[in-house]
Amino acid sequence: MATIDAISGYYDRGGEVARLHAGRGRLEFLRTQDVLRRRLPAAPARILDVGGGAGAHARWLAADGYPVRLVDPMPLHVEHAGAIDGVDAVLGDARRLDEPDAAYQATLLLGPLYHLPDRDERVTALREAARVTAPGGVVAAATISRYAGLYDTLIRGRYPEPEVRRITDAELVTGVHEPFDQDLFTLAYFHHPDEIAGEFADAGLTGATTYALEGGAWLFADRDGWLEGDERTQALLEALRSVEEEPAMFGISSHLLTVAVLGGE
């Protein structure tokens, strides 16, 4: 439970409840939704949303007609998610899911992998996701790019601070983001893009496809009206979709989404 203890202080503040609906978080939300709507089996397939937070994605999935069970280690998140129509929310750990084998047509890990610094634990979480997913079903997992922390501290103007610079430079090498300042996130692991396929394969998930969610647009999309829900937003989403599978975009994208079909090649 050490990982959960390390992140609980950050998430107990409640910032995750609204994060994906404002600022740069909205682009992450819209692009995750965009990819999942193209890759998920048709409703009413059963979905397990592991580490689903306060239910930002569970809400639209339920509205789209999917029965959703959300599992999260934070009581505050479970309380919020459980109030959403069509969502069953329970406490749980991605590494030890209290769910039967092959019970879901899709399993989502849109947060757990970037809170597990240990590779074996990340593979364990992916194996658990595969275990509870029926043959032919979908497993989708989000990761944070290795270089997101560097660009985030530059955008915030905090990189010149000695301690911020020390931690940021170290995570470029190790991938581990230390929880030294909760304004700059909590304990996390930032994946090098080349690592992801190997972790999926070691969990028995072959033939996975990785998508660059925001590309470089997360550096500017919350400015100049790009995310106000008009034609500019749609144009931005279409532009990002056109390069989402280009490996050259993986390093600059803040988040990556990797999708595998159980039993796929």
From TrEMBL:
Q: Does the record bear Methyltransferase in its keywords?
A: yes
Annotated InterPro entries: Methyltransf_25, SAM-dependent_MTases_sf
Q: Does the keyword Transferase apply?
A: yes
Q: Origin, by domain of life?
A: Bacteria
Provide this UniProt record's keywords sorted from A to Z.
Methyltransferase, Transferase
The segment(s) forming the Methyltransferase domain are 47-137
GO biological process per UniProt:
methylation
User: What SUPFAM superfamilies does the record tag this protein with?
Assistant: S-adenosyl-L-methionine-dependent methyltransferases (SSF53335)
* Molecular function, one GO term: methyltransferase activity
- What is the recorded name of this protein? 2-polyprenyl-3-methyl-5-hydroxy-6-metoxy-1, 4-benzoquinol methylase
Read off the lineage from the record: Bacteria, Bacillati, Actinomycetota, Actinomycetes, Micromonosporales
